[in-house]
Amino acid sequence: MNAGPLVEVEDLVVGYPGARRRWIEAVRGVDLSIPVGSTLGLVGESGSGKSSLGGAILGLVPVAGGRVRLAGQDLVRARPAMRRRLSARLQAVFQDPHASLDPARRIGESVGEGLRHALGLPPAEVRRRVIDVLAEVGLPASAADCFPADFSGGQRQRIAIARAIAVDPDFVVCDEAVSALDLSVQAQVLNLLLRLQADRGLSYLFISHDLSVVRHMSDEIAVMYAGLIVERGPASVVSASPAHPYTRALVAAVPVPDQAEQGHRRAARRAAVVAGMDEAARSGCPYAARCPSVTDRCRSERPVLAVRRSGVAVACHLDLDTPAEAGPRPAGRSLGARP
To answer: Is 47 helix (H, G, I), strand (E, B) or coil?
Structure first.
């Protein structure tokens, strides 16, 4: 399935002006690559820089440094005309489908917008392709003539997905795409995304704070904290045998049905979470103020992301090598019934 990197991010820096003329770096020199037909899950707490990274790839937020490449073409330094030509190959599905759809426009207009402007198709062809793509996400042709208010949250998210894939992209950023949906609808939308990936050969950056969802969707998982990637590796390994103390805290936060196990995880989470991040220790590990295993070296020297014997890259000074091996992914990565 994977034929090489489709998206490459190199030393990416994204920053915003803060109070008192302070410059706040949301993404701090991140490197990553996403192969063709693959899903990279990006997980972390709110404020970790996940959405800023996704927005930089899409060209929605300014890049302060580094490069973003799509199939080898530099998006950051591309001329405006080239960037517009490449934009159809990069699409997004955001968290709130109600906010991302114009309530005053019919669904056919919203889904067909990219076909009209990016591809320049005539009205009859736009209409035909809108009907086809609505059917592909499980909606009837009559949906094209309705307004967003006529649909449930899950149906609106299917419409948002239809709009993203209508222009036949190569790469889709899913930014908290199911976090606003209830669990049963989440499973349907996730399975729809997996089916579209298999049918169309799509590559995804799947952004979420929910490690359990990311685990089911992803080939690889990257864990982000304070603008840095602190762990990255096969989804089965990172989720089952987390190495970085922060990833372990995230895993401990995932609810489980067994009350005794949930109690153990809650205790581990309390042990890992102390007073917030020490802003003064910018030269050391950003997780030092919260880490239960912190050392003096952690406070003074920032760890680099390096591959351990387990095959997982971890940014930590501790000896975190484990004998855990990746197991096979469940067939189809399906959650519940297919849509």
So the answer is: coil
Q: How many CB atoms are closer than 10 A to CB 145?
A: 11
CA distances from 2 to 16, 33, 34, 307, 328 (A): 35, 12, 9, 21, 16
Position 322 scores a pLDDT of 47
DSSP lists the bridge partners of residue 14 as 27
Which comes out higher in pLDDT, residue 282 or 146? Answer: 146
Residue 57: enclosing H or E segment and its boundaries?
A: helix 50-58
Q: How far apart are CA 234 and CA 265, in angstroms?
A: 23
Mean pLDDT of the 268-281 span = 40
| E-assigned strand segments in the chain | 5-17, 23-35, 39-43, 65-70, 73-74, 90-93, 171-175, 203-208, 220-225, 228-234, 306-307, 313-314
Q: What is the DSSP string of 235-302?
A: HHHHHHS--SHHHHHHHHTS--S-HHHHHHHHHHHHHH--S---TT-TTS-TTTTT-TT--HHHHHSP
**Angle, in degrees to the nearest 10, between helices 153-165 and 183-200:** 20
Distance CA 322, CA 74 (A): 38
Report the C-alpha gap between 194 and 188 in whole angstroms: 10
Tens of pLDDT along 24-46? Answer: 889 999 999 999 999 999 999 88
Q: Using CA atoms, how far apart are residues 120 and 230, in angstroms rounded to an integer? A: 43
Q: Which of 18-27, 80-89, 229-238 has the highest mean pLDDT?
A: 229-238
pLDDT tens sequence across 230-264: 999 999 999 999 999 999 988 877 766 566 665 66
Cα separation, 12 vs 171, whole angstroms? 18
Neighbours of 244 (CB within 10 A): 27
